[in-house]
Design a protein that fits this description.
It is a single chain. It is built from eight helices and twelve strands. Strands 2-1-3-4-5 form a five-stranded parallel β-sheet, with helices on both faces. Strands 6-7-8-9 form a four-stranded antiparallel β-sheet, with no helix packed on it. Helix 6 crosses helix 8.
Length: 225
């Protein structure tokens, strides 16, 4: 996924660039509103600071939205409710207040992309992962070697989320927000239980690696069973 980062604070930008690249994102970095508007693209999402040296980021947001539907996430030290409301009304898809963590930004990017790029009917057939596993998101059914696998509802939701980006490291917080609830305050032990169930039921087709202190990464097995 290609990100256009519009940020004039070099330490903030460098930290964000490094973090995004660790998660597999491509990042183009510009420091002014003029450079953002002149950037030829293509890019999949814009991370836009409001405090730019040459113009107000809200004006850049409005101009970018007037050009098309590329998702825009405002990242700003302005935490005032008025700025949030104005940014969203001018076309921003989300608003992240500084200071923020890279994983929070990545979670926001993925959430926005899921909202703005819903699957079309033409894309709604089963998705194949390797030679053994298919996930039919339209019917919410999973098949292994042609036979349907009985998954509990949250097991299916977890698998569907992790297979959106095989190989990507997902934090426990991202997974809990996407699969359970954004306001989940209970223990995350339930996540470990569901991961264990998927490992058992889909053994040989996928692996789910636990990254201590971070989260989980799903890998699809090779073509040879």
């Amino acid at each position: 996924m290609h990100v256009l980062l519009v940020e004039d604070d070099e330490p903030v930008a460098e930290s964000l660039r490094r973090g995004l690249k660790r998660y597999g994102f491509e990042v183009d970095w510009v420091t002014t509103g003029a450079a953002a508007l002149a950037h030829p693209g293509p890019y999949d999402v814009v991370l836009l600071d409001l405090g730019l040296p040459d113009t107000d980021g809200l004006d850049v947001c409005k101009a970018l939205r007037g050009r098309g539907d590329v998702p825009i996430i405002v990242i700003s030290a302005r935490s005032d409710e008025t700025d949030r409301v104005v940014g969203l009304e001018l076309g921003a898809d989300d608003y992240v207040s500084k200071p923020f963590g890279v994983r929070e930004v990545i979670a926001r990017i993925r959430a926005v992309m899921r909202r703005v790029r819903p699957r079309t009917p033409a894309d709604a057939g089963p998705d194949r992962y390797g030679t053994r596993l298919t996930v039919d998101r339209k019917a919410a059914r999973v098949h292994l070697d042609g036979a349907e696998v009985a998954l509990a509802p949250k097991e299916y939701d977890l698998l569907a989320f992790l297979t959106e980006e095989p190989g990507a490291l997902m934090s426990r917080e991202q997974i809990m927000e996407a699969v359970w609830d954004a306001n989940w305050f209970g223990p995350t032990k339930t996540l470990d239980v569901h991961v264990a169930a998927l490992r058992r039921k889909l053994a040989g087709a996928i692996t789910i690696e636990a990254v201590r202190g971070v989260g989980f990464r799903l890998e699809v097995a090779g073509d040879t069973p």
